[in-house]
Amino acid sequence: YLTAQKLKQPEKWFPLRVLVCGHCRLVQTEDFADAGELFDAEYAYFSGFSTSWLAHCERYADAMQARFGLREGSYIVEVATNDGSLLSFFRDRHIRSLGIEPTASTAAVARSRGLDVVEAFFGATLAASLVGRGVRANLMAANNVLAHVPDINDFVAGFTMLLADQGVATFEFPHLLNLVRKHQFDTIYHEHYSYLSLLAVERIFSANGLVVFDVEELPTHGGSLRVFAQRAASGRHAVTAAVERLRAAEADAGMDTPAFYRNFQAVAESVKDDFLRFLLQARQDRKTVAAYGAAAKGNTLINFAGIRQDLIAFVADRNPYKQGRFLPGSRIPIVSEERLREVHPDYVVLLPWNLCDELVGQLAYVADWGGRFVTAVPSLQVHNS
């Protein structure tokens, strides 16, 4: 996100290309930016601003404690703990916990909640250091981080090292099957190095000493997977029928063939064209358009479509770390939610469409002036407020 001062300076632009490996079917974004540049001290995503995500975290803590018998003597390690939203639920259950978070902004908030946080990128080197300090995890959680690591093998190897002999690791990530089928091209951006299927994840885990024993399909982020893994030598948990069902579903979809990926560019361009037509028609009709949620996925959509402030006046966001800044590329200003009440836009584009139900409820007052909500992905929809 740009500051007012940075608006006066040249801005970097990067190609956004996504490729699929013909051998292992791991889908990856072509690298142009170092992880340290993307996940820096001013990193502005804080998970605690979403009430639906907080509820998801609490359900996770309840389920893991019940399923794996976690108690006060257990040890939980969360990789990419962000602002501590999830780890706080384990702390409140008096279970020992450790957070690992490389971004200073979010790590500081987690510490302010009384959580123990290591401010570093996770991988085999950090895992070895923690094992040397006596840390062995009964449960490791990695929610929406597996896609964010440039060296996915080194990252996964660290889990194998840090897990207790009978420990369990869970990984949540958007499911590539949904990304392609539901036209979710806006979830592709440089911060996401990988786009994951069970097919690819099982191959990566196997190469690094982990075995998948269960999988759950989740509604989060447009459709995600929660994968359960254990050390290959453990054998404590039998492989469930859910794993075989999802293997079969991915095979039936053709995810191990080039045909599955071939038409994705054309679909993205169709979504872009429909969205642009809507915005241009709104301007012609003298309707005002604003957006809500300065989400990374929104930046992919807006920059791919070449949208500027003449088509979307501003984007409102509850996160004070984003307010007063500008979206990269488009330079659309980020303002507080109060601006919506002041301006009364005719349309509010919900950029984080995956939170549509939550945001329609949060912004219900838009109906007071007859405003309507718009989502562009997976296809253009105008919703009644």
How is this structure best described in words?
The protein is built from 13 helices and 16 strands. The mean pLDDT is 93. The protein is α/β, with parallel strands linked by helices and 385 residues long. The chain is 34% helix and 20% strand. It is globular. The protein starts with 17 loop residues before the first strand and ends with a strand. It has helices at residues 35-38, 51-68, 87-91, 104-112, 124-132, 152-162, 176-181, 198-207, 241-253, 264-284, 296-305, 338-343, 356-362; strands spanning 18-20, 27-29, 75-79, 96-100, 117-118, 137-143, 163-174, 194-195, 210-218, 224-231, 289-292, 315-316, 334-335, 347-350, 372-375, 381-384. α4 (104-112) links the parallel β4 (96-100) and β5 (117-118). The strands form three sheets. The protein has a seven-stranded mixed beta sheet with strand order 5-4-3-6-7-10-9. Strands 13-12-11-14-15-16 form a six-stranded mixed beta sheet.
